[in-house]
Amino acid sequence: MHESAQRAADLLGALLRDEDVVAVLRAYGEQDPIELSAADVADLRQAAVRLREVFAADDAARAAERLNELLAGHAHPPRLSTHDGQYAWHLHVDSSDDAPWGEWFLTSSCLALAVLLAERQQPPGGICASPSCGRPFVNTGRGSVRRYCSAKCGTRERVAAHRGTH
Asked: pTM of the entire structure?
């Protein structure tokens, strides 16, 4: 589930920043041809806006509340699938193996983030605190909740604060 949570963060970042969504899907094992219509991309962006609220939650309770709302409104009963033997068995909560891209993205991401929250008892992710970044990221470490998507962003912000610039 951690890889699915990371996929959610990476897809969210690509959708919110108008980056190459197909490249992200390929990086996470989607098989070619990956054909996304303008309507598919619009649905994916709508799902991204909803998922951003989970990543932006201040604490586990708020993240869980938002995840529960999204799952209640969009998820279907869990089912196992191999997509006709193309992949290993994995869990789905979308309507079918042929569900629209936006539905798949929203429901699979919520499932992965909910499992991560339950495992860690912390928000499953965050939004980078660097004003020049704002990328979503997944919290998988055992320490305190992260503020930045990477060490690079954290260092850049510490240096800017030290210099008195921002």
From this structure: 0.91
